[in-house]
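In response to the reviewer comment on reproducibility (Comment 2.3), we provide here a single inverse folding case reported in full, input and output, so that an independent group could reproduce the run without further information from us. The structure tokens appear first.
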């Protein structure tokens, strides 16, 4: 899994799963600077309500 692919999927569906969020938090120390910025952007989208925590059907 990559943060870029995860970001695009979350934007497209408007949903991020708990497992994906767990993957981000457990791998954040290994992210490059660009990947860290992507993770922060995804976090801001969750905070603003544009991306919801849930599951995809």
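Designed residues, in position order:
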């Amino acid at each position: 899994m990559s943060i870029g692919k995860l970001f695009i999927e979350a934007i497209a569906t408007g949903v991020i799963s708990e497992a994906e969020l767990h993957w981000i938090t457990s791998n954040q120390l290994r992210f490059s600077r660009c990947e860290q910025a992507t993770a922060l952007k995804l976090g801001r989208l969750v905070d603003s309500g544009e991306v919801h925590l849930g599951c995809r059907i």
